[in-house]
Amino acid sequence: MSSGLAELHDRARAVLDPVHYDYYAGGVGEEVVLGENEAAFRRLALLPRVLRGSTARDLAVDLPGARLAVPVLVAPTAFHRLAHPEGERATARAAAAAGTVLVSGMASTVAVDEVVAAARGVDPDAAVWFQLYPQPDEEVTACLVRRAERAGCAALVVTADSPVFGRHRRDAEHGFHDLPPGLAAENMRDLPGGPPGGTRDIEMSPSISWEHLDRLRASTALPVWLKGVLHPADAVLAVGHGVDGIVVSNHGGRQCDLVPAAVEALPAVVDAVAGRVPVLLDGGVRGGGDVAVALALGAAAVGVGRPVLWGLAAAGEAGVARVLELLRDEFDHVLALCGGRGVGDLTRDLVVVRGTGVGGIGTAGAGRAGAGGGSAADGATRPSAAGAGAAGAGAAGADAAGAGAARAGTTGPDAAGPDAAGPDATRAGTTGPDAAGPSAAGPDAAGAGAAGADATRANAAGPGTAEAGGAGVSRAGVGVRCG
Q1: Between vectors from CA 171 to CA 323 and to CA 419, what angle results, nearest 5°?
Q2: CATH code at position 28
Q3: Record's CDD domains (predicted)?
Q4: Residue 232 to residue 265: CA distance in whole angstroms
């Protein structure tokens, strides 16, 4: 973690309720993946080019649903009002001022229309995206999509990695299963099947399928991103099902403790997609150098969760603004040191695995889709080879087919080690992009009364929910309106 972000983290920890801090900061199981998300970046290095830079560098990126002034967006995390009374409103204002996107979580403690209004109060053209867990009751999903559309959201981010809730040891130890009085997952209020005027639980269900995604995508004109993809075969399937972009993410280490670090999975997914849609990376980004490494491996941009929560807890809107400015400044500095004029000059041949020489991770393959602004200086190509220090074998999965398909198995830099604190996780009281509520599931989760034998219900008002923080999502009764 860069020194500026570390200082904000320490200030946040000092002011947060320890239970809420652990909610934001924690991960699933023994928190191996939580630590690996960050540690995997430390195993990679950049091999700069010289005598080809520029005094003015173009950091902008065009994506389906927004143009970003810098390739960093605010990843979805839950329950920002646990960190600061202004909650998601403050986060939205800071993101808009920085010229980037807030992905507003389904388990937000501020309703999505109010989040968009806060962002547009700073910049009338500000883009807010809405993160969505498809619900077993598709009428509920449809209501949430319509709310996001009416609020003025510019894209949907559909979380796919939460068939059940992750098991968070820290939340269980604290007994953190419910939000404090006065806080709720406001997007879940007044929905079909819930008590009038109250909220219903966010549900996780293993029955959610590609067919659910197809129906959701057909129901809206908004761009649809699929979040939580790690296997290249799923990336190929996602493109075939018409998604507009893919987010490589392990839910900030909050869902399954056996998966690779997000950055290890990135190269194989980029190769499988073969430039057909843009790919974002979410998980473990703790400085501008990490942003540069992710872009060099083929990401169009990165999502940042926990650091934003630390900034919010430490200093409200100004703290979030500070996080985004630090990342912008650090990234611009690293880009200059690598001889870059724009984001397109960060190519895979610049990435090496520490301790293995400087041969580079690879130079063949498809380029980054959807990233605007950069020039590949001196004709540099954006290789799309196998993962950091790995060689991907085999094509991707049985049903994977299709162009550019896949290097099965995410390959990545030498991974390992538990190292707990991690990248985008979030547990009680922690702040992180993909954080999810205590006791229930990880960041993208939540749910009450999920359907099906395996479905888990995250205690509506409680911590086990949402992308980065939802604690069991809030059950404040929900009517049957789709208001």
Answers
A1: 60
A2: 3.20.20.70
A3: alpha_hydroxyacid_oxid_FMN
A4: 8
282 alpha carbon, distance to own chain's centre: 4
Number of domains in the chain: 1
Q: Give the start-end residues of each E strand in 160-278.
A: 203-204, 224-229, 245-249
Residue numbers annotated as active site: 251
Instruction: List, for residues 88-118, the tens digit of each pLDDT value.
Output: 999 999 999 999 999 999 999 999 999 999 9
C-alpha 263/C-alpha 368 separation (Å) is 15
At residue 410, does pLDDT exceed 90? no
Q: How far apart are CA 362 and CA 350, in angstroms?
A: 9
3-class DSSP state of 339: coil
Q: Are strands 66-68 and 61-63 parallel, antiparallel or unpaired?
A: antiparallel
If you ran DSSP here, which 8-state letter would residue 226 be given? E
Distances in whole angstroms, Cα of residue 18 to Cα of each of 134, 173, 215, 317, 427: 31, 12, 42, 21, 11
Distance CA(276)–CA(384), nearest Å, equals 13
pLDDT of residue 165: 94
Total number of residues shown for the chain: 483
Residues 6 or more apart from 415 whose CB is under 8 A from it? 36, 39, 40, 43, 260, 261, 264
For the chain, how far is it from start to end, CA to CA, in angstroms? 41
Burial 45-83 (b: 16+ CB within 10 A, else e): bbeebeeebeeebbbbbebbbbebebbbbbbbbbbbbbb
Q: H/E element holding 20?
A: helix 18-25
Question: Which domain covers residue 418, as residue numbers?
Answer: 3-470
Asked if residue 483 belongs to a domain, the reply is no
Question: For residues 420 and 432, what is the distance between their CA atoms, to the nearest angstrom?
Answer: 14
Q: What is the DSSP letter of 186?
A: G
Q: Which residue has the tokens 């999810």?
A: 436
For the stretch 448-472, pLDDT in tens is 333 333 333 333 334 444 444 433 3
In-domain check, residue 437: yes
Quote the pTM value: 0.81
**Closest Cα to residue 424, out of 277, 273, 263, 212?**
263
Residue 475 lies in a domain: no
DSSP string for residues in 413-443: SS------S-TT--BBT---TTEE-TTS--T
